[in-house]
Amino acid sequence: MAEYDLALLEHDNLGSTIYQRLCDALMKGVFKPGDRLKIRDLAERLGTSVTPVRDAILRLVQDQALVLRSPRDIRVPQLTRAVYLEIRDIRVNLEGLTAGRAARNATPAHIVTLESLLKRNEEAMAAGETLLATELNQMFHFELATIADMPVLRDILRRLWLQMGPLIADVYVDAGRTMIDHHYPLMDAIRGRDGPAAAHAMQQDILHASGPILERIDKARSDAAVL
User: Fold this and answer.
1) Which CATH class is domain 81-226?
2) One CATH from 3.40.50.10840, 3.30.1540.10, 3.30.200.20, 1.10.10.10 for 2-75
3) How far apart are CA 46 and CA 40, in angstroms?
């Protein structure tokens, strides 16, 4: 019985690890909207059997981060305009709250961390390293939730970014500075411990970035109609 329990624990831990790695890949934009994921290929890349990968895939389907069209057709979803706008409006409110709370909580060490993430994001964009830039952008947003000391809200944001990550990464290379311009007034507000100004800057960041994102959604819909 003890050996069985140990094996079960190892399986559960492996499944959780695979799930988290796939979550990270989605949020960082490793997979793009419309990409088809093959369980066996993923298992080979991750160096594991197909069972924990299949389990992780099913969890991501429940998270609405993947779409299961059939057992052999698993896709990163193409968000519709309506779904994106709903997520955007939720983020405007929740991440605005996060930024306002972070401005009140931020220590000098927190500010240094945020400044470093922003600087590295600029460098990644200048070097054309889109995946790294996308990851640093996501880290910046999540760091604010950590500084705000709102773990429940951070988990909600994680689920939203699971759905948004591939789309954000898809537009990052073309959107350029649109994706981070408002991080600078946000940093000014945090340095000044101005919660309302920080909340406003974050809301503007999300709303401003929605322009190129909506353009990409409309283009994908138009291309699909032609096909």
Assistant:
1) mainly alpha
2) 1.10.10.10
3) 10
Q: What is the pLDDT of residue 178?
A: 78
- Domain coordinates in residue numbering, the chain: 2-75, 81-226
Q: Which amino acid is at 95?
A: E
Express each pLDDT in 177-196 by its tens digit.
778 899 999 999 999 999 99
SS3 127: coil
- Which residues, at least 6 apart from 165, have a Cβ–Cβ distance to it below 8 Å? 26, 27, 28, 29, 134, 138
Question: What is the average pLDDT value for the chain, to the nearest integer?
Answer: 88
Amino acid (1-letter code) at residue 187: M
Q: Can you tell me whether residue 215 is helix, strand or coil?
A: helix
Q: How far apart are CA 191 and CA 102, in angstroms?
A: 10
Tens digits of per-residue pLDDT, 30-75?
898 999 999 999 999 988 889 999 999 999 999 999 999 988 899 9
CB 57 within 8 A of CB 66: yes
- How far is residue 76's CA from residue 37's CA, in Å, rounded to a whole number? 8
CB burial readout 178-206, b (16+ within 10 A) else e:
bbbebbebbbebbeeebbebbbbbbbbbb
